[in-house]
Amino acid sequence: MSKSSFAAVIEQHLPNLAAYRDLYKHFHHNPEISTLETETSARIASELRILNEKHSSPIEIKTNIGGTGLIGIHRNGDGPIVLLRADIDGLPVEEKTGLDYASTKRMMDTHLDQIEKPTMHACGHDFHITALLAAIETLLNAKNSWSGTLIYLFQPAEERGAGARMMLDDGLYTKHGCPIPDVCLGQHVWPHKAGNVFSRSGAMMSAADSYEITIFGRGGHGSMPHLAIDPVVIASHIVVRLQTLVSREVPPDETAVVTVGSLKAGDTVNVIAEEAKLQVNIRSVSEQWRRVLLDGLTRVVRAECDAGRATAPPRIVRLNQYPLTYNDEAVTRRVEHQFTRFFGDRHKLDMQPVLGSEDFPLLGSEVGRPYFFWFFGGHDPRDYDERVRLGTVNDIPMNHNPYFAPCIDPTLRTGVEAMVIAALSFVGKDRAGQQPKL
């Protein structure tokens, strides 16, 4: 399809976004934390049913996949099978944006620690949901402009790196009858200039591996350390030594981060604890150096425990694991070509890899299919330009921040346009009614 054809699809078939702005505010005001997105999932299913009734649509809706996950299968003639994904969970963060639709919700985290927590859409998944729903209506309106099968997938629990795996393990492509896609597509809002779209081939988002490490010592009186084995000292050496994995074992031109986010031991000042616990997060953008870091973690922990005379081998437990998001080159170039033709200089190519992580790749890699993942900006364009002028861009609240508040316009429209264009890159017809081959 030419640029004019893409523009025509958007111009003729994009629905009035006023209702979707209100829907976005609803989702933002009513977030639900990972694995507990019951009301969110029900509202999405309701919106899909409304679209079916409005358009006499054949979208087949399947719910309760891997918990609160759901899909809509939209068959529209012969052609490629393309999966479009949006994640739906919020975060245990107390919102401080001051928006009139800000979340004041609290939830009992019954799937993790039984603690009531403030809840916020602090990562923009409310935009992802709303943009995909509006894209679905656009594609329904434009059904004569494309041919194939589109899978609209709404995934829970991305923030715990579990939702894609939960849906797959529950038989997404078997028991629930989801066709195996030829390609998977997904997007993410982030605190850059709204109206812009960002992409790259290859490593797009880092792999992330998180562990809890328990160090075993011998408790005792703080005045007699020679009769105890202090796990805090051992843990402290581990914290320092782990930093050398990046500075001394990974090449300077590679990107990697090792963070000890938690170190806990003891309850009072004059007692040497029995054990210490560390929580470690490792991020990398290549499988080669990911393996170096993970092997190094185990080596360092065991060696420091031996050096400190720990009373038992350390216990190393994986908390979560996110795959490396590595955009397929052919798929990326295909969508990027269409993004550039539509967005012009608002499409930013070859962005730097993002050290956040996603479980989206599993939806494709699990069945040997390629995928493409991109970003779209969410910060007010005028304020962003002024911050560039003042050198304060880094002060913009980022994802997971309690002040994270993307502007609705033009963020929502850009997210809808990008998802529609990406889908049409594979299922869209040219002016002669022909489809390019995958």
From TrEMBL:
MF GO annotations: hydrolase activity; metal ion binding
Keyword Cell wall biogenesis/degradation in the entry? The reply is: no
* Name of a matching Pfam family: Peptidase_M20
The record's family statement is: Belongs to the peptidase M20 family.
Sorted alphabetically, the keyword list is: Hydrolase, Manganese, Metal-binding
Q: How does the cofactor bind to this protein, according to its record?
A: The Mn(2+) ion enhances activity.
Name it: Hippurate hydrolase
Q: Which cofactor does it need?
A: Mn(2+)
Superkingdom to which the source organism belongs: Eukaryota
Peptidase M20 dimerisation domain location: 210-305
The protein's matches in PANTHER family, at most eight in alphabetical order, are given as: METALLOPEPTIDASE, PUTATIVE (AFU_ORTHOLOGUE AFUA_6G09600)-RELATED (PTHR11014:SF63), PEPTIDASE M20 FAMILY MEMBER (PTHR11014)
Species:
Cyphellophora attinorum
Summarize where Mn(2+) binds, as residue positions.
Answer: C123, H125, E159, H188, H400
